[in-house]
Design goal:
This protein is mainly β. Helices cover about 0% and strands about 50% of the residues. It has no helices and 11 strands. The protein has strands at about 1-5, 10-15, 20-25, 30-40, 45-50, 60, 70-75, 80-85, 90-100, 115, 120-125. The strands form 2 sheets. Strands 2, 4, 5, 6, 9, 10 and 11 form a 7-stranded mixed β-sheet that branches. Strand 7 and strand 8 form a beta hairpin. The relative contact order is 0.31.
Length: about 130
């Protein structure tokens, strides 16, 4: 198994930036592809970004493309989500998730594609 702990959330004004981190422990981090999802009150959990185990392949939701960047540092067992030009509609609890690299994930992942989840970190964007 792999344990995931998110950090870096907070309150920011519209147009601002935040960098989320997700630290992984347990089995070999580089054996997992990683994703970020978010869930706003009353809404379903939605895909934000995905990165392959090597870091060479990334996918983004259309709503964040060009504003958010996912990256990973396998030496530090950490995946990041750099969020720029934040909007009030980005307000949500953000979760990181992991899936073993042998499992196929589409270019439009859904939550059940991932096996392990963190507890989430709140991001609030004020207008």
């Amino acid at each position: 198994q792999v344990q995931l702990v998110e950090s870096g959330g907070g309150l920011v004004q519209a147009g601002g930036s935040l960098r989320l981190s997700c630290a992984a422990s347990g089995r070999t981090f580089s054996s997992y592809a990683m994703g970020w999802f978010r869930q706003a009150p009353g809404k379903e959990r939605e895909f934000v970004a995905h990165i392959s185990s090597s870091g060479y392949i990334t996918y983004y939701a259309d709503s964040v493309k060009g504003r958010f960047t996912i990256s990973r540092d396998n030496a530090k067992n950490t995946v990041y989500l750099q969020m720029n030009s934040l909007k009030p509609e980005d307000t949500a609890v953000y979760y990181c998730a992991a899936v073993p690299l042998y499992k196929v994930v589409s270019t439009t992942p859904i939550a059940r594609d991932y096996d392990y989840w963190g507890q989430g970190t709140q991001v609030t964007v004020s207008s």
